[in-house]
Amino acid sequence: MGSRVLFGFHAVTARLRTHPSSVQGVYATGARKDARMRELTARATAAGIAVHLADEARLRELAGHGNHQGIVALVDEASPHVTLDDVLEGLAEPALLLVLDGVTDPHNLGACLRNADAFGAQAVIVPKDRAVGMNATVAKAASGAADTVPLVTVTNLARTIAALKERGVWILGADNGGESIVDADLSGPVAWVLGAEGQGLRRLTRESCDRIVGIPLVGTVASLNVSVAAGICLHATRAARAKAPR
Could you write out the DSSP letters of every residue in 190-242? Predict the structure, then answer.
């Protein structure tokens, strides 16, 4: 089996948490001794994975550029199967998930993965049928986010939404006709549910949401691209959390 490179704390920590047996080795800078680095290297060591000290030149060579945050891992080339339980177990903050109901355009899925990475969503959830899954086009459009954000494929979206509710996650459907995202309460564990391109949420999916939240538009267009809407929803959640009293 071949190997490929993961880099950055989010990507490497996620792989160590969900599929440590796929990690062949970790390369870490000696210049960072903060708690985040200590926790990551301790997790790797506990899993029996060798941690090698590496200078900036070596890390840059492995990652292909300098945006590695001082941590690089060599992993098995095949992507592991990640379940929702894998994602939810041991979260260090309230859940922030993106659920896509029937998105079929690989470029849109890739862009949604990029948004998920940018705003710290822990996973993107898609149904197995009548939707696009991971492929080369998605990976290219994701610009590296396919390695940092787990794509969880489920056989029954309604059952998955019900399971999230049982775990205390609020299900927010992004669609017209609901409360404005400007005024919505976005605190606590949240899963945003967005519908397919041009279709919006399916009726059954919409009815399974705890609340419907809309993005107010002031121009002439009636709707937004699903990846744009996803970015707005995730950013709004992060902004609300940043303003919340600690």
Answer: EEEEEEBTTTBS-HHHHHH-SEEEE----SS-S---HHHHHHHHHHHHHHHHH
